[in-house]
Amino acid sequence: MTESDLPTRKLRVLIADDHRMILDMLALFLSTSAGLQVAVANDLDDAVLQVQQSGPYDVVLLDLNMPGMNGVQGLRRMVRLNHGNPVGIITSSPTARMTDEILNSAAAGIVLKTTPFRSLANAIRFMHAGERYLPMELMRRSSEQLREARKSELSERENKVLEYLVEGQTNKAIAVEMQLAEPTVKMHVTAICRKLGAHNRTHAVVLARDLGLV
Hints:
Layout: E1 12-16, H1 20-32, E2 37-41, H2 44-54, E3 59-63, H3 73-81, E4 87-91, H4 96-104, E5 110-112, H5 117-128, H6 136-153, H7 156-166, H8 171-178, H9 182-196, H10 201-210
Parallel strand pairs: 1-2, 1-3, 3-4, 4-5
Helix pairs in contact: 7-9, 8-9, 9-10
Keywords: DNA-binding, Phosphoprotein
Domain HTH luxR-type: 147-212
Protein name: Response regulator
């Protein structure tokens, strides 16, 4: 018997959500169409009990807002119980702060409730492979929020100086264009570098372009 002849073990997945209808639909699809072995739970305590009784699952998905979660406390509890196997979060539309908090609590990923079932199966396999799953929608949102936050940190005059830096203008040329003293321009450049986390003016230009500030 070759290795290819050996039966492939189905991934054991535990999904916990307090919306029973959605939970049953997810379990049905993932079991029949995606070939996963799916167990379900209605709240965190039920999920914890199943892990304690059945051992760690290959992947656990927890609804962020179901009973017992208390924000990311429930996530951290399950991460400890599941012996290093991936634990992801299911949620609707997390804020940037909550997204960071979830990821900083060792979550294997975030799955939005608007995710198509087929994409959910792919996300589960992605997390099982040891990768961190984050939908493009959240990645774009995080990038936009970071860009807006960085841009709002700069004053109106600093944003203008930044535009001239991107054009390759010297401090002296910028001073002439903006009718400022050259030391004042140098002060603005220093402030721009500090706020963007840049090492120098060239690095500031690169970061500004990457963030879409200019």
